[in-house]
Amino acid sequence: MARAAAKRESADFRRQSLIEAAADCLADKGVAGTSVRTICARAGVSPGLLRHYFEGIGDLIAATYRDVTERVSRSLAAAEGEAGPEPRQRLIAFVTASFRPPIADPKLLATWLAFWSLVNTRPAIAAIHGETYRGYREGLERLLAGCGLDPAEVRPAAIALTALVDGLWLELSLDPSTFTPAEASAIAVRWVDNWLGPLQTAC
């Protein structure tokens, strides 16, 4: 039993090392410079091992995208959880977490841009992209509804806030000298206050 568990753990480690190597290659070299050879060299394994865990490089890149999105989701959830029970503070924490590490990170941006470039050509990537966007928006919808926002306004508010956060995160990750994380957070908080209006006192 112990040997089987150790073997499974070792297999999980090797699979994860390939995912992390793929993310590093995409960040450093982009899609064009990422291949089975470059990924395996980064992971320190033979090229044949990739086929043992993945159907091919496309399957590995999709698994890498999912892994990256799950890490971001965990960071957002942790920020929300640490904000305590007050609904508005949970919303603010969820929104502003994107302006701090590990989400506000030039390396993460480079990896994300590589994934985005594949959305229109890789159905698996498009599916993960759709799930990710939907999950983030639904998280905002839940938090906005918890602050008492009119149900008819929840969805458009979540869409608009998602676009605002994406734009601020993108610019902050591209050039941190443009504005500070604190300024990005203040902009997002002001937007939330303006949208909630008099309802913010009930949150």
TrEMBL record:
<feature type="DNA-binding region" description="H-T-H motif">
    <location>
        <begin position="35"/>
        <end position="54"/>
    </location>
</feature>
<dbReference type="Pfam" id="PF13977">
    <property type="entry name" value="TetR_C_6"/>
</dbReference>
<protein>
    <submittedName>
        <fullName>TetR family transcriptional regulator</fullName>
    </submittedName>
</protein>
<keyword id="KW-0805">Transcription regulation</keyword>
<dbReference type="InterPro" id="IPR001647">
    <property type="entry name" value="HTH_TetR"/>
</dbReference>
<dbReference type="Pfam" id="PF00440">
    <property type="entry name" value="TetR_N"/>
</dbReference>
<dbReference type="GO" id="GO:0000976">
    <property type="term" value="F:transcription cis-regulatory region binding"/>
</dbReference>
<keyword id="KW-0678">Repressor</keyword>
<dbReference type="InterPro" id="IPR036271">
    <property type="entry name" value="Tet_transcr_reg_TetR-rel_C_sf"/>
</dbReference>
<dbReference type="InterPro" id="IPR050109">
    <property type="entry name" value="HTH-type_TetR-like_transc_reg"/>
</dbReference>
<keyword id="KW-0804">Transcription</keyword>
<keyword id="KW-0238">DNA-binding</keyword>
<dbReference type="GO" id="GO:0003700">
    <property type="term" value="F:DNA-binding transcription factor activity"/>
</dbReference>
<dbReference type="InterPro" id="IPR039538">
    <property type="entry name" value="BetI_C"/>
</dbReference>
<feature type="domain" description="HTH tetR-type">
    <location>
        <begin position="12"/>
        <end position="72"/>
    </location>
</feature>
<dbReference type="InterPro" id="IPR009057">
    <property type="entry name" value="Homeodomain-like_sf"/>
</dbReference>
